[in-house]
């Protein structure tokens, strides 16, 4: 019979936290394993072997720390019991030192949080900054669900993934966002498998990792026209936001990140040519008068970029992030000014161009169901096959009605 208990060792210095440790007894032999967890004597219940958390009116931050301590102790005790059960099932004699060695080996293995942070760092090194940011977003979401408590790679199972999914659903997170997080976590887990750090247990087989068709997010041409006519001369940030939305619409729904990194030398001979950062596809758009009029409102950048999003040559990524946060926030204000029931987003500009183009009897192959394909690749194939002339003519017809 092997027993596992959690014990508290007070500090030799008054007013300092004491150390928590595991006591393992096997065949009358005792071994101690220290933990990184520390608490004050008043925060430990020796009889229950549990942390005493403060009342709701006390310090919330300390309560959160003690919650993580309790969860870490529980996880460690569960691991010790699994080790002991595995040794018992082997039918071989073992000592208390064998238990301690197995536990220390487990504690030294890369945890999921640590491995994912390594993947994020690797993506930064490869220059895949945007992908690294999405991985960081998924990690923050999962870490919040875990209350900051890391999980060993071999602790991943279907029940953990299902619990995380249920928590996100209870918070009202959109199904596509849930799928987005799950697919990122699955990619990290699979890479850990490829690296030989854990066995493949397919923990994500019972959660949603598909893409749900989103509701139509287009506004009619009358709304675009109303937005263009708003007098925002006294509200610079709203005026800038309006201009960025219109520029996206003018350019057939160009994404904000592509707009931000347009260079002045991308505009040549009456055509704007750029490569989509998301897909790598090269697009060419005929430069229209309304685009030039918008550009003329702003002084030439110190940076080599075309639009007034990245204005300096230093810390470009931070300037882009600050601008997209500002635009997202101010689009909500513009939506209220326009009396819209659903807020504008930069993606609405893309949807709106597609919807309005369809209403002008532009071929369905160009519009591809208002950009509603689950795979954007299909839409790109249709657009490429028709050539720029057809699409430029369609865009001109739409812009002339503004």
Specify the structural class: mainly alpha
Order of neighbouring strands in the sheet with most strands: 1-2-3
In round numbers, the mean pLDDT is 87
Major sheet details: 3 strands, antiparallel
Query: Uncertain regions: pLDDT < 50 for 5+ in a row?
Result: 369-376, 378-386
Radius of gyration over all CA atoms, rounded: 29 Å
Number of helices: 15
Query: In terms of quaternary structure, what is this?
Result: single chain
How much strand? 5-15%
Distance between the termini: 82 Å
Helix proportion: 40-55%
Instruction: Tell me the count of domains.
Output: 3
For this structure, what is the CATH class of the largest domain? Mainly Alpha
CATH topology of the largest domain: hpI Integrase, Chain A
Q: Any guess at the CATH architecture of the largest domain?
A: Orthogonal Bundle
For this entry, give a set of tags.
hpI Integrase, Chain A; 3 domains; three-stranded antiparallel sheet; 15 helices; elongated; about 400 residues; mainly alpha
